[in-house]
Amino acid sequence: MRLMSSGRHHATFDFGDLTVTSLRDGYVDMPPTRLHNESGRMLKELPDSVPLADGNLRLSVNAFHITDGTASVLIDTGASNAWHSTMGCLYDALAEAGIDTDDITDVAITHNHEDHVNGLIAPDGSEAFPNLRHVWIGVGDTAVFTGRLQPVGDRVAPITGKVAINNWVTAVPTPGHTPGHTVYEVSSSAGRLLVWGDTVHVPSLQFAQPDVSWELDGAQPQAREARAALLEQLTTPGYFVAGAHLDSPGVGRVTRNGTGYALEYLAPALA
Ligand SMILES: [Zn+2]
Question: How far is the CA of 79 from the centre of ligand 1 (A)?
Answer without folding.
Answer: 10
